[in-house]
TrEMBL record:
Sequence similarity: Belongs to the NMI family.
Lineage: Eukaryota, Metazoa, Chordata, Craniata, Vertebrata
Cell compartment(s), UniProt: Cytoplasm; Nucleus; Secreted
Protein name: IN35 protein
PANTHER family: INTERFERON-INDUCED 35 KDA PROTEIN, INTERFERON-INDUCED PROTEIN 35/NMI N-MYC/STAT INTERACTING PROTEIN
UniProt cross-references to Gene3D superfamilies, sorted A to Z: 3.30.70.330
Length: 252
């Protein structure tokens, strides 16, 4: 199926010269969760596999302060969670002629907007090697700033300098200037990958409140006598609603 366009930030760590051509990707997968289902992440992958192999589970629900005769049960289906991960990736990089990337910015007791004003004022002056600034912005989840000039030919000389002293308040701070690269994915190949510790539960009827149902599911699936184990996380989406789960790299 076709994939929606998504802006991403690639972060890499250069350890030595041999690693300079390597690209490190950190998974951040948005997974749609339908109504009447739950995602359960166990601490042990073996428990998740056991729950999937059992397939059908009968969960006892306590409906308020009722006696044992008024206990109700629901049957839910446990299935694996499979997501698509890149197996091959080709990116075409282009250096912008009007943009520069500013990093190694000082940590000051001023707002980001005030810092952007200072940077724009400095780099808009010809005596500092700059020109009229068309736009400025902080990169998402980053302490780096992208400045866009209104004219060509301004970015290259600044990039060649590499560093520049910028006066901010009562001090001067050395700021690093780098080229601003934009990347287009020219080839992307995906392969399915199964989440080792997470199970998707389907067919959950809306017979309890959201909190009560979440508690009942967690109690059931953490009991070893029912094939379960310690639950690391549980997300429940009631029938008639939809949710989105975010999967990150499993470092545990």
């Amino acid at each position: 199926s076709s994939l929606p366009e998504k802006k991403v930030i690639f972060k890499g760590l250069i350890v030595n010269k041999e690693d300079m051509n390597k690209l490190m990707l950190t998974p951040l997968i948005h997974y749609p969760v339908p109504g009447g289902s739950a995602l359960v992440t166990f601490e042990d992958a073996k428990v998740a596999q056991r729950i999937i192999e059992m397939r059908e589970h009968v969960v006892e629900l306590s409906c308020g302060d009722l006696d044992e005769l008024d206990q109700c049960r629901v049957r839910v289906q446990a299935v694996p969670v499979e997501i698509l991960l890149p197996s091959a990736l080709e990116i075409r990089l282009t250096q912008s002629r009007r943009r520069i990337l500013l990093s190694a910015l000082p940590s000051l007791d001023i707002s980001k907007e005030a810092l952007l004003d200072k940077l724009e004022l400095f780099f808009s002056k010809k005596k500092n090697g700059g020109s009229e600034v068309e736009s400025r912005e902080f990169l998402e989840d980053s302490d780096q700033v992208v400045l866009t000039f209104s004219q060509d030919g301004v970015a290259e000389p600044l990039i060649e300098k590499g560093h520049i002293q910028v006066p901010i308040g009562k001090g001067k701070y050395q700021v690093k200037i780098s080229p601003c690269m934009s990347g287009d994915i020219s080839n992307l190949q995906l392969q399915p990958s199964r989440c080792p510790r997470t199970v998707l539960l389907l067919g959950i009827p809306e017979v309890l409140s959201e909190e009560a149902m979440r508690d009942a599911l967690e109690i059931h699936f953490q009991k070893a006598s029912r094939g379960g184990g310690e639950v690391d996380a549980l997300a429940y989406v009631p029938a008639g609603r939809t949710g989105v789960a975010v999967f990150v790299e499993d470092t545990g």
